[in-house]
Amino acid sequence: MIRQKHDQFSKQYFGDLLEPDGLVYLNYEIQGVSRYADVYFKPITVQQNLGLLTQMTTKACLLEPFRKQPSKVEIRQCMLKLFALHDELIRQANKSTPKKSLTENALPSLWIITTSASDNLLNFFNAELKLPQWGEGVYFFNQGFRSAIVVADRLPTTPETLWLRILGKGKTQQQAIDEIMALPKGEALRSNVLELLSTWHINLETQNRLTTDDKELLMNLSPAYMQWREETLQEGVKQGVKQGVKQGVKQAQRVFVKSWLIARFGKIDRVLSRVVEPLVQLPLDESARLLPRLSREELLARFGKKS
């Protein structure tokens, strides 16, 4: 379950972060083996500077994130996906007209991103650092495997590693979230990532049973959620200020309620839209208390009746 929750966030995270620079395929189905790669990225024109993440994705690659240390079997399964993708691309090239040949350098690579990895695991695969071209925390397998493992809690605390440390755990992730919140408010990446972190927080908050890991994660995400909530309300006030202070406050609540519903349910359809105005009429603390606790059906039963 933890793996699935982390997967959902990390896929969306990489999708939103890398989309300006190329083609991002989430849950990419590799033909012939009935396996799905978490993220398959093909760069087109690199427009952003995401530090280490940009360095990793200058060429086509698979990204496989893990919330906890992967097992030896899981690492080999990731490699199997990579080799199956190589086979798929080579077959496509052989069938093309005119026939193409793929060089070794044109084949995608694999990046396994994990919160932690023991020396025993790294030594088992003979994974080694490549200094100074690649910094601490990035371990490469034998060259023929075209694979590497990025260990979040071994990465140096620098701006270049920020966008990968956010996928860490505990203090590593907490530090990264603090750094993101400290970025200038007008920076697009800051806003996008804060919204993604808040969505993750909302999805966790609505779960009935939380593991110890979930609770720790919820604590790490709480400052980002509170910042997102405050800035969302401020944006609503700006939108409604021309209509007067009272209307500005209501508009702020309306923006907050809509953002919450979208984060939790993916979209506001025609039926769900009926609950927006009744929730806006409640005191903000009351709507903020109810939104994480009520299911879609409960929200509709309580607030979605046609007038």
Please characterize this protein's 3D structure:
This protein is of the alpha/beta class and 307 residues long. The protein folds into 2 domains: 167 residues, Trna Endonuclease, Chain: A, domain 1 (3-Layer(aba) Sandwich), CATH 3.40.1350; 101 residues, no CATH class. Helices cover 51% and strands 13% of the residues. The chain contains 12 helices and 7 strands. Strands 1-2-3-4-7-6-5 form a 7-stranded mixed sheet. A hairpin with an 8-residue loop joins β5 and β6. α1 runs antiparallel to α7, α7 packs across α8 and α8 runs antiparallel to α9. The radius of gyration is 22 Å and the shape is globular. The model has no long low-confidence stretch (mean pLDDT 87).
Task: Provide key terms for this protein.
307 residues, alpha/beta, Trna Endonuclease, Chain: A, domain 1, 2 domains, seven-stranded mixed sheet, 12 helices, 7 strands, globular
Succession of helices and strands: HEEHEHEHEEEHHHHHHHH
- The largest sheet has its strands arranged as 1-2-3-4-7-6-5
CATH architecture group name of the largest domain = 3-Layer(aba) Sandwich
Number of helices: 12
Shape: globular
The biggest beta sheet reads: 7 strands, mixed
Give a nutshell description of this structure.
51% of the residues lie in helices and 13% in strands.
